[in-house]
Design goal:
Length: 213
Amino acid sequence: MDRIEFFFDPVCPFAWLTSRWAVEVSERTDLRIDWRFISLRFLNEERETFERYRQGHLAGLHLLRVADAVRGEHGNDGVGAYYTALGTELHTEGRRDELFGGSEIDLDGLAGRALATAGLSGELAAASGDADRDRVVRAETDLALSRTGADVGTPIITFDLERPDTSSFFGPVVNRIPRGDEAVELWDALATVARIPGVAELKRSLRGTLDFT
C-alpha cells in the first residue's frame, strides 16, 4: 500500500483542490492518506500581510484546533471526513470569502455544521477556542517545513514516509481537480519525481480560474 502525509490548512483553496485530487486517487488505487496540519497563520506570522489575510488565516488555525480534537476522538479517518465536509462548504459552496471579508464569523457554527455532516459530535467544535492545541498545529507546521524548507505554502505532501526529507514537496498547485485516469497518471508522475533525490522545483505561474467542481 502506498501511503502519504498530506499537510493542509482548511482555508487554503489550493490545498483543497489538491486534496480532492489525492482523494480521487485513493478511491482508484490503494493509496492511504494520513492527514496532517499546517497553519497559514504560523507560516505568515513574521510577514507583513493584509488584515483580511490575517483574519482568514486565524480562522484556519481555529478550524485546525477542531481537527486536532477530531483526530484525538476519531483518528485519521475522522479528520478526513471533517476536512471534506468543511472544505465543501468553504470552497465548493463558496463561503471561504466570508472568513477573509472583515466581518464576524461564527466559527463554532461553521465547525459544528462540518462535524454534523461528517457524522461527528458537534461538541468538538468547542476546541476552536482551545489555544493549547496550537502546540500540535505548530509542531506539525514545523515538521512540514523541516522537510521542504521555508518560503512554501500549502499543501505539502510527503510521498515516501521512509525518506520524508527527500520526498516532500509544496503542491502541486492545480486550478481544477484531476479526475479518473488523468488523476492517477498525474499522481504516478509526481510520485516518481518525488522519489528522485535532488529535484527541488518545477513551477509555472500561469494558471486558469479556480474550478472547485
